[in-house]
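Following up on my earlier thread - several people asked me to post the actual chain instead of describing it. Fair enough. Here it is, all 543 residues.
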Amino acid sequence: MAPERELSGGEALVEGLLAHGVDTVFGIPGVQTYGFFDALARRRDEIRLVAPRHEQATAYMAFGYAKASGRSGVCSVVPGVGFLNASAAIASAYGASTPVLCVTGEVPSEFIGSGMGHLHELPDQLAMMRGVTKWSARVDHPADAERLVDEAFFEMTSGRPRPVALAMPWEVFDQRAAVGPPPEPRAPALAPVDPHAVDRLAGSLRGARSPMIMVGSGALGAGDEVRTLAELLQAPVVSFRGGRGVLSSDHVLSLTCAEGFECWPETDVVLGIGSRMELQWFRWGHEPEGLRRLLIDIDPSQPTRLKTDDAIVGDAAEATGALIAALEGHRAADRSRQMREVKARTAERIAEITPHAQFIGAIRRALPREGIFVEEICQAGFTSYFALPVYGPRTFITCGHQGTLGFGYATALGAKVARPELPVVAVTGDGGFGFGLQELITAAQYGIGVVCVLFDNGAYGNVWRDQMRLFDGRLLASELSNPDWAALAAACGVAASSATSPEELERAVGAAIERDAPALVVVPVDRREEVSPWPLLMPQPYA
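Reply from S.P.:
Thanks for posting it. Predicted structure:
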């Protein structure tokens, strides 16, 4: 039997993180969490700390770390206002089904729920934490810490991965107590695949004339299975954001959202794999008559939520593999010629989205196939959904349906920390970049070699366009006055350059990737000449 150990609450939390293979924490210390950060300092050879300049960035970086690596990201902030600052990124992780653990503090135990106004006190912090996470708990004694860390990882990674949070009262971080043996880390729980459901879906797919597969981030670990199934069915594989790269863009059956819309009217069976099916119910409008809707998803509530006709609940790779086995001997007619024609037609429309389609093409030429691209809520980011070829999973990073303006740069820094051997390029607009430009200092301090391409159109581009289009040009708070970006970057210790054409951008991004150091490339854009990407993203309202 393992001997009892005497640990502080902070030390016990760190022991729990180490037991789950955590090697990086993104965090900003504060008085309520000193005991945790001191415990990290004494284990710095095993866990590194990256300290951003804003609490929101701690969680965005943990989010980017998880997206790029497939492992859990960990961040730490002070309680109350600190957790509230981080909550936008935690909500993004929730929406994008990403495992992030936030470790925060709490007011001293005697003041919890007292309403005395202790430093950073909230009326009910635990309830607030539960509002933006899959699971949250408070660690009230050092002896509970390792068990609750294990529970946090189990909840975070079982079923649909989503963020979780742990809070510890101020004094418990430093309180020392005898703790029992550490718990054995548990593997995530996986629902068994129902063979009857597999047979039913196989029957529907055998009878399909023109099937389509839609993939989301839940299919990132099922690339081989998706490719095999698509080839058996000769079904186009359509991805919007989260599923980009599940099937490489250079595969004839891999379609973007813009290309997939061209095939939608003739589709008679649609199979979602790890996808919210946003294209189907939100962006593409009316469904084809008689459409049969099938789903593979690890979340048992998703089939009901999406009103599917039949579903397999389970892991995407396991369930898709079972479906392939059930379809043994099935061979559909070759549709490669049709798919090439669709791609050719759509390429002509994409080329009209000037200048961003051309700029996205320049970035793709400079970025190696395995390089990571992080989008942003900006015109270039939107254009990348259909204009950027993506060749592998976890190389296109998005915040998903939350659409959190300003997430991109900090998220890209986290992705680069997770995968330092790969080039990472982030695109951003001047509006979104203003939400987190202080993280240029973080990039310089830690030598995080992200290449940030900043498209400066002097506006919140979407808002400006909508005010012009929908409100007779009555502009309010959509135009921006910006600093000298190069001077700002230089003051932060980051090299800056500019590009005014796709050719110049390709050279600038390529040179920055070669240096593997923090870089900012500024691209001035005339917003009056930007062609909207929205007719390809929301085709029904623009039809």
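The mean pLDDT is 97. That should answer part of your original question.
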